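debug: dumping io for the single-chain case to check the tokenizer round-trip. Nothing else runs in this session.
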Amino acid sequence: MKKGAKHGKTKRHGLSKHTLYRKWQDMKKRCYNPNVDRYVNYGALGIEVCDEWRDDFPAFYHWSILSGWVEGLTIERIDISLNYTPDNCEYIPYSEQCYNKSTTLFVEWEGEKLSLSKLCNRYGLNNNEYKCVWRRYRQKGEEIKDIITKYKC
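debug: decoded output
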């Protein structure tokens, strides 16, 4: 039986050279291949690809197109503790993906949950100022509202 064959038949979709095909393969490797560096942050933590997508690239492709994928966007799990599923994924710019990591510090700001780095970016604070805000919030226990509105490090 040929590689990729199911029940004696090879699935053909004509999209194996499409950018999304590589992204789909990479997503599965992160979840299922312990020899891939990023496996420790995905598969080793129990993160999986939903049944709908795991063995059906056209299903993933169609969801991606309907979900607004264009070149330059990356797939993002909305809740990083949950699997890759249509309800838990979206496409965002690479520049925003850094805001959704297990090490990201989130704060409440005017009724919105934001990463501290995104909040600092919103107010034009540079990297050194971010570190100062982080230190005052995490180590000194100051209220984020007080730090940002009366910013003086």
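debug: round-trip ok. Residues 19-32 form the longest helix (14 residues).
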